[in-house]
Hints:
Elements: E1 12-18, H1 22-30, H2 32-38, E2 46-52, E3 59-66, E4 69-81, E5 85-94, E6 104-113, E7 116-124, H3 129-155
Antiparallel strand pairs: 1-7, 2-3, 3-4, 4-5, 5-6, 6-7
Amino acid sequence: MASPQPTAETSLRISRTYPAPREEVFRAWTDPKALERWFAPDPEFVTKVPILELRPGGRYRVEMTKGGATHVAVGQYREIRPPEKLVYTWKWEVSDMAGHFEDTIVTLEFHDRGHETELVLTHEKLPNAEERGKHEHGWNGCLGQLARYISERGAA
């Protein structure tokens, strides 16, 4: 039986450009201390990254807390090509979405655009359009937080 192909309902793709070299943008996704500073849908979250094993098969755990509620995403790295590409599984361990779907796949591509980096995020295998919409909202928030983080680093 063939695997189902991604559809517009079960996958999303977001592209953003950042005023930083791709090595810096890649590092923001792979350094746990950096992730803790920006990885959340809005600045009211407190993020902790107790596990980040940056190797194929390595695990990660991201804990985002806001207003007493904690959302935990876990997964494994599948592909790591600094500073070009990251591929990892994504699953909610603790969240209102936990248990609603199996592992999904996140692919990050870092494209050199001179003095800027274009980041293309693709999230596949989401269960339905509703979850796709929730994840699109969350990822857009995270990518906005990343822009602020990069801007603050550039100003420092």
